[in-house]
Amino acid sequence: MACHEASTSTKIKVKQQSITVGIIGNPNVGKSALFNKLTKGKAWVANWPGVTVEKKIGKINLGETSFEIVDLPGIYGLTAYSQDEIIARKFLIEERPEIVIQVVNAVNLERNLYLTIQLLEMNLKLIIALNMIDLAEKEGVEIDIHGLINELKIPIIPVVAIKEVGINQLLETMIEQIDRPTVSFKLDYGEEIEEAIEKISKIIDSFMGKLDLGIDSRWLAIRLLENDNDVVEQFRSRGLEEVIRESRRIKDELEARFNKSIEVLMIEKRYHYILSLSKKYIKRKPARESLTIFTNKLDRVLTHPIIGLMIFISVLYLLFKLSFDIVAPLTRLIEIFFSHYIYNLIKTSFLPDIISSLLADAILNGVGIVLIFIPNLLFLFLGISFLEDTGYLARAAFLFDKWMNKLGLSGRAVIPLLIGFGCNVPAIMSTRTLGTDRDRRLAVFMIPFMSCSARLPIYLLFTLAFFKENQIIVILSMYFIGVVIAIITAILFNNLLFKGQTVGYVMDMPPYLIPSAMNVFIKSWERVKSFLIRAGTIIVSLMVVIWVLSITGPEGYLGSEALSVPELLSRSWIASFSKLLEPLFKPFNWDWRIIASLMFGFIAKEVVISSLAVLYSAGEQGLPSVLLSSFTPLTAYSLMAFTLLYTPCMATAATIKTEIGLRYTLLIVSYQLIIAYTITYAILLIGGLII
Length: 691
Prior knowledge:
- By secondary structure, this protein is α/β, with parallel strands linked by helices.
- Helices cover 61% and strands 8% of the residues.
- Strand 10 and strand 11 (556-557) form a beta hairpin.
């Protein structure tokens, strides 16, 4: 079964100026790779309306016609149980794309055909992109493509997306299909069920004016027989209770006759049809270089509970090395360029003091905070995208799935949580790989408690001053506290806020592949660009607000010197607000200077140290000796715990807001403050009793 690239020679004679094309398929079938090849990387990312799942859209022009390509979430079916299924089906029903391309894995074609049948039942103009055809040949899988085309009456194009094989032929087929009629597909469910479908269809037809869904009544009748909650709600919202009652009566009569769930019977019919297609058109022969044999051997090692865990830790360590250590010189270069060169250039300019301070201390510092993350984010996402496209991340998810399930999450959530130890920002952004909104939100609630590298300088400062002999143990205890609180948070919110929303996760192990460099880069850059545009705007805005509150006070304008002179800063709005909060922190024996430092820590956690140095009139080198006279070991430990648990930094908060919305951001910040206060109070109370 050879696969050859075709040139695009079809003349474009299309009446419509704009055509919408939806790309759909099971997870891990190469859907994103095909999308990137079709759009040539010229795409943008948004969110689907009302949810935080990514929406990828690209545009290509063929002749005078513009094709809008929409990459739908990876799904196994259109039953609308999960958020991804709801999004995909809503798009297909409401947007009614002129063409739908289903990407299928040629190695395991049978597994993909269930979605094919559901798409055909919706009377969509469907094209199948038979991906990984080269791997299928190596596996000894022979697919009678012409036989399948004659049976299903739809185009089937063999492609190898990552190598751009078959892309031109796919584009040519898209153009050919535009003005052709949609082929009607009707799966025979048996005499009794077909009679029931016909009865419900006639009832629906009589109400079609009110329904206005623009979809075939047979499909709606099938969905009602399968008790599809989303379709039932569509009828109910239009006041069509009569249709719901009649369909349930017919369904109940059938189930009484068969003594079995109609939904199960219909699913069985679909699988019997898939089995018949497989027997007719798919043959498997022993292959010399079997990918399955290689995959199985490698999986025994990578998913082994001990060896697999050791490999995973090693891979993650290398990923962190790449993302944090290797790019450190580049990060430092960005910091020097903005914080020193450009900063001094603005400060020594002939601009008025307030303007130069606004540009340098607020806007420039805000831009610097955003840009300083870019090298880390880019290299981290390059690593994640590479591991994702090789198929390794699916194995890592399987390795941890049993443990993560106890927290209400799938194994995939372990990656973002562990990334959080390096930096919470990319960790939160990497939750996009999780399947549902619920999983994403639960993981995002946990991530801020993962002690990031920015908190480490605070631990080092206080442990060097107060716990020299037990420095490692004290620092490790901070990480331990963070993990424990994260686990408690998952259990708490899984049983309260997200109760009853758990969706099962089917884990499909993709074959091991050599990733496309372009595909890896495009996916990584899309995520980094999202941070730059969305979170960057929030960060710069917040920096301006903090700057205003620092250089002004009840007396009015204090001057930009307030940012470095303790006496002036003590008269600012920041100080005034800190002094108002002093009674709240009286049980901790903290004065307004510590509270102000923690407020500045919202910019970035490590800023707590420089703020303490300014407010206590001590250079950072002399700060440990100053702290010894102002703190006890117990109050020092409690402050370390508070910096671990209280509000996430500005960049993290901005990322949370862009990823899951303002409401959840405010909830997370409030929850963290309550947890931080409670745990700190408990440490001081218990520590006081022991000491």
